[in-house]
Amino acid sequence: MVSLMFFGSSSYLCSSPSKNTKASLDFERKKVGPCTKLVRNVNLEKLKNNYLFPEITRRELEHVEKHPNVRLISLGTGDTTEPIPEQITSQMSNFAHALSTVEGYRGYGLEQGDKTLRQAIANTFYGNLCVKSSEVFVSDGAQSDISRLQLLLGSGVTIAVQDPTFPAYVDSSVIMGQTGRFHEATKTYQNVVYMPCGPQNSFFPDLAMTPRTDVIFFCSPNNPTGYVASRKQLHQLVEFAKTNGSIIIFDSAYAAFIEDGSPRSIYEIPGAREVAIEVSSFSKFAGFTGVRLGWTIIPDELLYSNGFPILNDFHRIVTTSFNGASNIAQAGGLACLSSAGLKEIRSVINYYKENRKILMETLVSLGLTVYGGVNAPYLWVHFRGSKSWDVFAEVLENTHIITVPGSGFGPGGEEYLRISGFGRRDDIIEASKRLQRFFNKRTKHFIFLSSASNNN
Fold first, then answer.
1. What does the alpha-carbon distance between residue 256 and residue 252 come to, in Å, rounded to a whole number?
2. Distance (Å, rounded) from C-alpha 344 to C-alpha 338?
3. What 8-state DSSP symbol labels residue 273?
4. Cβ-proximal residues to 197 (8 Å cutoff; 6+ apart), any chain
5. Distances (CA, A) of 305 to 108, 210, 245, 302
6. Residues 6+ apart with CB under 8 A from 111
7. Distance between CA atoms of 53 and 373, rounded to whole angstroms?
8. 202 backbone φψ class: left, alpha, beta (φ>0; ψ -120 to 50)
């Protein structure tokens, strides 16, 4: 396969988000009327541009305004599209209807989550891994839990992230005050250790070259690259954390897409209970992106340097900052984990896997260098020598397809697009046709630089 170079974008869209920064600075210079004496949070001032996905939505809306009659296809933000199985929604509906009765009404529940659901999560996802229901904290989604974990960690910790990485890890660290300023030249924040994860190292960091940090954010299967860490690699990560006295925050939100027997939980690795927190979600597993339901595991064995249980502090954070996940959503979660619910969910996951396969075959047939796409819903497509926002803009302008520019996931994502297998089948097929027409037509404008094979 080959990599392609874009020389520039013909799109009306700006090639990088820098205009947003300028707009923000211009706003600060203007006198907008009477102001309070409250000084803006200095950590929020450090944030570079908009958060990635709202920025993509903004550009999407601009494109629709410019092309009101086109059929826009999103292969971008990773939102699920298929209906939640009726086996599950009927349980939520029944629970909601019961709230209108004296017998069925429920008010506040436990902040940590319904006991039955917590036990079901422990049994279903962690079977023989010794996870207890008391270690399960049910939430309104993994992204919310990342922010609650940041409250737990505080501003004084040092962090390491995969590069590229899901942007919420870094942005929440900036907001908490764990980082320094953004360096425009390197596209990195000071005091954050970026662990390169690319084709050159099989998308797993060189831990021998990684300095110690208090916290290591690690996502497998990885968002955005689609790569899953092997059992051997996770053994290395756990041993690295144990040697350095670090904590791993392990994001397993895409574990349901693993096909090759790779670990779906960090707790499959011996010793992980002493060094790891796991965050996961019903969003991609069950199509709950709008329903909102997730969980975090804090093992009893996970201790601070003074021996105090971290679980106790997270319990305090949760009961202070959160009133618990919606009881209707939790009823849906229980239905998901029934034998009938799991069967229905697997069918939907297989649907997205087939989408991913269609896109993979299309992109490879065009000579593009494609990574991921086996154990995750995402394809990581390389455009050597190009700026990812330029490629995003040119693809959008010419095919009316939304993707995600790789640089939004960190400096290691430059030259890449993330393409999602979440979508309706007719959209996936139509998108494949548009991509074929576009790249075949534009081949003469591209330079073929190198060949590579898809792995993982």
1. 9
2. 10
3. G
4. 162, 163, 164, 203, 204, 205, 222, 225, 227, 412
5. 35, 21, 8, 10
6. 318, 319, 322, 323, 324
7. 21
8. left
Distance CA 168, CA 96 (A): 32
Number of structural domains found in the chain: 2
Residues facing 249 on adjacent strands: 217, 277
Whether the predicted model's global pTM rises above the 0.70 cut = yes
Residues 275 and 379 in one domain: no
User: In the predicted model, what is the mean pLDDT of residues 290-294?
Assistant: 98
Say which amino acid occupies 130. C
As a 3-state breakdown, the chain gives helix, strand, coil percent values, each rounded to 5, of: 45, 15, 40
Domain stop point among 289, 313, 339? 339
Burial class (CB in 10 A: 0-12, 13-18, 19+), 40: exposed
Instruction: Say how far apart CA 5 and CA 3 lie, in whole Å.
Output: 7
In this predicted structure, the answer to whether residue 104 has a pLDDT above a threshold of 80 is yes
Give the whole-angstrom CA distance, residue 362 versus residue 67: 26
**Residue 304 in tokens:** 């601070």
Contacts of 287 (CB under 8 A, 6+ apart): 80, 82, 83, 84, 345, 348
Q: State how far the alpha carbon of 311 is from the alpha carbons of 91, 135, 308, in Å.
A: 31, 7, 9
Whether 385 maps to a domain, the answer reads yes
| Strand order across the beta sheet in which 294-297 lies | 136-139, 294-297, 276-281, 247-251, 215-219, 159-163, 192-196
Does residue 453 carry a pLDDT above 90? no
Q: Return the exposure string of 379-410: e unless at least 16 CB atoms fall within 10 Å of the residue's CB, then b.
A: bbbbbbebbbbbbbbbbbbbbbbbbbbbbbbb
192 sits in which H/E element: strand 192-196
Same domain for 335 and 379, yes or no, is no
Nearest CA to 179 out of 87, 379, 278, 44 is that of 44
In a domain, 135, yes or no: yes
**Do the bridges between strand 182-183 and strand 215-219 make them parallel or antiparallel, or are there none, so unpaired?**
unpaired
Q: Which of 193, 166, 49 is nearest to 418 (CA)?
A: 166
Which residues have CB under 8 Å from 67's CB, separation 6+?
400
The residue to which tokens 């436990």 are assigned: 110
Peptide bond into 164 cis (omega under 30): yes
> In the predicted model, is pLDDT for residue 19 greater than 50?
no
Are 112 and 252 in the same domain? Answer: yes
- Is 170 inside a domain boundary? yes
DSSP state of 309: B
Distance CA 152, CA 311 (A): 10
* Residue 30: per-residue pLDDT: 58
